[in-house]
Amino acid sequence: MFKILNRYLSLKFIAAILLVFLLFCFLILLIDFIELLRRSSKSGDIPLYKVLEITLLRVPSFAELTLPFAVLVGTIGAFLMLGRSSELIIIRASGVPVWHFILPPLCVAFVLGLFSSFVYNPIAAAAKAESERVYAEVFGASQSVLGSSKNQIWFRQDGSDGPSVMNAKAVANHGHSLVGVTTLQYSKNNQFVERIDARRADLEQARWVLKDAWVSRLSQQPKFYKNYLLSTYLTPTQISDSMGSVESVSFWALPNYIEIANKAGLPATRYKIQYQLLLSKPFLLAIMVLIAATCALRTFRLGRIQTMIIIGMCFGFGFFIFAEVSRQFGLADKVVPEFAAWVPIFAWSLVVLTVLLYQEDG
Fold this sequence. Notes:
- The protein is of the alpha+beta class.
- It has 2 domains: 2-141 and 267-361, no CATH class; 149-235.
- The protein has helices at 2-41, 48-84, 87-93, 98-139, 236-243, 254-264, 269-296, 299-302, 305-331, 337-361, and strands at residues 153-157, 164-172, 177-186, 192-204, 207-217, 223-231.
- A 6-stranded antiparallel β-sheet has the order 1-2-3-4-5-6.
- It is elongated.
């Protein structure tokens, strides 16, 4: 009987969570598409299919942020539907303790968290990286992925051919691809050699590969090169740490990023925090279920459904504010990444378990 009950409750909660998650995905798609349309109208003639492609590629990454909210709202909705149909009352009247029928949604949330970190996140990260590349190509002439056109990227680098100063209008692929590149190349004696204007630059091993480059030298006519090589001592890690988007790095790639950054003596705090947040996600989603249980299990016995739902939502948002403050402390190197990611979960789990024990057992 318990196996059948657990299977039935699990399916109910899965359906409710997926329904809310898909609703969030649709809202994100609609809002982001409208925003990109607004930007495209200011950037000239950009094909509609490109705008839609960028939007679709960005949806998985944005939707990943809403998964805890989807679990919270979906679990509250599932509990309320079970109470409204008197199924919850019948289950409790049959002698099933509250901790037993909370177990199925807890298991669903935990497994969903594992799936989100280990499977969904790499897919979303790959889509986000591709969206950054397409965005840089489409909007690179007037906008930067990192900010407005007034905040273009400037940096100085050294290479075997001498130092150079590079300017790019947009960055993509963790900083490994630059769009709208202008380079001033100098000799080892700091004498000006040439100016290079290229449509795009891709970072490879110890060199930049500049695509569709026009090279202008003193007293010479500009020459066009389909591919033009520029030496550099920059490493992919150095570029990623200063320009890359941590959301476009998958869970499985994060340990390698952290290891390389540590060996190079570069800060890897944001990658460490992201890694710990993904590791803790199953427990985060489980806490969302406990928060939902504290506000939804007794509503039909005591009334005040709307009030309890509002309290539960506020409780959930309070947790996210606490977690975000802790994350910012971690990014500022005030606390270690493990502390920033796990302490909010541990602290809030104690709070919600105390409330639930008091409600159910007095």
